[in-house]
Amino acid sequence: MTYKQRRALTAYAFLLPAILYFLVFFFWPIAIEFWASLRSGQPLIGESEFAGLKNYIYIFKDRLAIKAMGATLIYAVGSTVFTLLIALVLASILAGPLKARNTIRAILFFPYIVSFVISALMWKSILDPYTGLLNAALLKLGLPQQYWLTDPDAAIWVLVAVSVWKDIGYAVLIYIAAIQGIPNHLYQAAELDGAKRRHLFRDITLPLLMPTTLFLAVIVMIASMQEMALPYLMTGGGPANATRLYSLHVFDTAFQGLNIGYASALSFVMFLVILFITWAQFKLLNRDIRHT
Amino acid sequence: MLKSLKTTGAILALAAGLGAGMAGAETLRVYFNAGHGYDTYMDAIAQFEADNPGWTVQFEKYQWPDLRTKIVADFAANNPPDLLATPGGWIPEFAHQDLLLSIDDYAARDTDTFDYPGDWFDNAVAKNTIDGKNYGVQIHHTCATLVYNKDMLAEAGYDAPPATWEEFREVAAATTKPGVFGFAPNSAFIYYWPWVFQAGGDYFNTETGKVGLDSEATISALEFLSGLIHEDRSAPVPVAGADYEGPQRLFTSGRAAMIITGPWDINPIRTGNPDLNWAVAPSLTGEVQSTVQGGVGLAIPKDAKHPEMAWELIKALTDVEVEVETSLRYSMTMPRKSWLADQRVQDDALLGQFGTCLPYSQDVQLPLTLTGKFDPAVDTIIQTAFEEVLYGRADAAETLKAAADEANAIIDAK
Predict the structure, then answer these.
(1) What percent of chain B is predicted at pLDDT more than 90?
(2) Each residue of B95-153: pLDDT tens digit?
(3) pLDDT at residue B187 is higher than 90
(4) pLDDT at B320 over 70
């Protein structure tokens, strides 16, 4: 065995645990799920039979699944866009010389470390139209009562807002680290050339933050597409299924309806959708990085 | 040296004794609802363990949705518990899948000491009877009925609770004032059905084999509720969510004059506002007097390791003394006729009033679950339709017809 082969073998030996981990806990479940998605009845837990693509075709007839996918896209895009935009603005401010910036960072980061269950129940209590603190405050100020959680058009945006509140601290910290990593001489050179603050931000900060933006966009988007706890705890998917996100629909289909084959097909479609969105994000945002 | 040897010998003997004890030890696994781990049941279990040396009850508590996930996974892994608590509908569903054990042989054997089904309300037995066989024993038997604030009604000029829909609408309007609603409806699925049943409607018509969603009765029930919310403004739009405590909180804080609820809210109201002057009324009469029925059943999985002991524990937990004590301490209504006849229960005005609703109460999904064609997706479709009418103000007849077609397609495909 040559030295090169020995080195390769050693490398693979070190990689083996990780490869096994991914095979057992990621690729094998995906394969099993795909197998289950081609069967009707209760594959994995009971009797089932081969159904071909029947489960996949039924998704297009499932009014609730289509509505859930729509709500999930609104939620995911809304959460991602608002989280990144607000985080970028806050990070730009907090990366500079600002008094009490550490305290502000800690306050912003705090929601991220609070349990999702506690956050959801807290916001549900605050936003309750009849007993909530927010409406009580509005009424005290002489403003009209708001029906955030009972209005089907408003409820999904309430979830987006809570999601942004929860994730913003993490995104701000990542952005601050990225901003502080940008070499100072780039700004100094640009200033010598007469660049103004807005030019510095647009032509240096933003492009150099593109890898960070890509990372955050992918992370937040994937997490949002998979979200289940928030609607489950805050709205139960209502009112009128306005906040029935896709994962909640899959959960109900699998564990309430015991329709495991169809739930597997729903899950596999979500897997493909997330894969496509992530690929699209890489295509769109990576292109900008190369321009820099 | 001798002392050391003696000590070592003693330790070894103790270890051997413990080992022997461990070898003879048996564990009875029980899955129960998280909210029902009452001290009275813990006492009954302690007594059961004392009466059966060597047996330990592993009492695991879960919220219903988690319990369902858990039991589904356990059935798949062929590792179910010995005893399973279930809300409405699970026993027929699992029995149709051949996952539960019929308790008939045990009941017939013990009929001298344990009068099942003779001492149980007929509708509590019917919930767990599939093709003439019993697959479970009810431990709780509940119904939801009208609960009202006596002072608020008196202030509006009413010295008795409403008995009909017309009276109810009038009282709700009269007791509504800024910040206070005459009636606080609940968004949870089951709370829509008292209205449908009182209008003469049903969840599933066993004669036609179709859901009763698009019947005149269901449409009129939804229109009545919508009228209270959007026309009279005597009721708020119910808040959707995973819990069903919103109306109770409004009632307890004096911001709602009437709610529809079950005995599970007696303690929260009592402890939340001890000064509240409130009472329980018979269910309203529309076309008929009716309301919804709830409860918890105990079932033994077919693959349970210790079905015999599980049956013994069922007997211990549903003993009438345990039932009476539990109902008095935790305000839960029970399925045994001798429980309702007990003077201590009769003397408790609130419990007794809830008890009188049990005979005319109906289990919502039972007619469909007994056919083995129940699918929770049907509930989701119905709930969506109801909410589209109440929240989105969609046309009731049109919305319910479309939903009925969708629900019937699911049932027909089963």
Answers:
(1) 70
(2) 988 999 999 999 999 999 999 999 999 989 999 999 999 999 999 999 999 999 999 99
(3) no
(4) yes
Whether residue A117 lies within 8 A of chain B, CB to CB, comes out as no
Q: Which residues of A touch B250 (CB under 8 A)?
A: 130-131
Amino acid at B163: A
Q: How do the residues of chain B divide into helix, strand and coil, expressed in percent and rounded to 5?
A: 50, 20, 30
Contact of A32 with chain B, judged by CB distance below 8 Å, is answered with: no
Beta strand B361-363 pairing with B291-299: parallel
What is the pLDDT at residue B380?
87
Instruction: Name the burial class of residue B193, with classes exposed (0-12), middle (13-18) and buried (19+) by CB atoms within 10 angstroms of its CB.
Output: buried
Contact A45 B73 (CB under 8 A): yes
Averaged pLDDT for residues B385-397: 89
Q: Tell whether A124 is within 8 A of chain B (Cβ).
A: yes
CA torsion sign, B333 to B334 to B339 to B340?
Answer: positive
Instruction: For residue A167, give how far its alpha carbon lies from the nearest alpha carbon of chain B (Å).
Output: 23
In sequence order, the β-bridge partners of residue B142 are B294
**In angstroms, rounded to a whole number, what is the distance separating the alpha carbons of residues A234 and A237?**
8
Residue B388 pLDDT > 70, yes or no?
Answer: yes
Chosen for mutation from B391, B399, B410 (greatest number of chain A CBs closer than 10 Å) is B391
**A14-18, B198-202, B329-333: which has the minimum mean pLDDT?**
B329-333
A64–chain B Cβ distance below 8 A for any pair: yes
Q: Domains of chain A (ranges plus CATH)?
A: 57-291 (1.10.3720.10)
Domains of chain B: 21-142+294-363 (3.40.190.10), 145-261+375-412 (3.40.190.10)
Report whether pLDDT(B1) > 80: no
From CA A279, how far away is CA B349, in angstroms rounded? 66
Sort out which chain B residues have CB atoms less than 8 A from A63's CB and list them. Answer: 406
pLDDT at B192 over 90: yes
> pTM of the full predicted structure?
0.79
Beta strand B291-299 pairing with B137-143: antiparallel
Residue B133: DSSP 8-state? E
pLDDT at residue B34 above 60?
yes
Distances (CA, A) of A188 to A96, A184, A193, A204, B219: 15, 6, 9, 11, 72
Tokens 């009112």 map to which residue?
A239
Answer whether A142 touches B (CB < 8 Å): no
Per the CB < 8 A criterion, the answer to whether A240 and B392 are in contact is yes
> B163 pLDDT band (50/70/90 cuts)?
very high
Neighbouring C-beta atoms of residue A62, cutoff 10 Å: 18
Q: Using an 8 Å Cβ cutoff, are B124 and B295 in contact? A: yes
Cα B308–chain centre separation: 26
Contact (CB, 8 A) for B242 and A232: yes
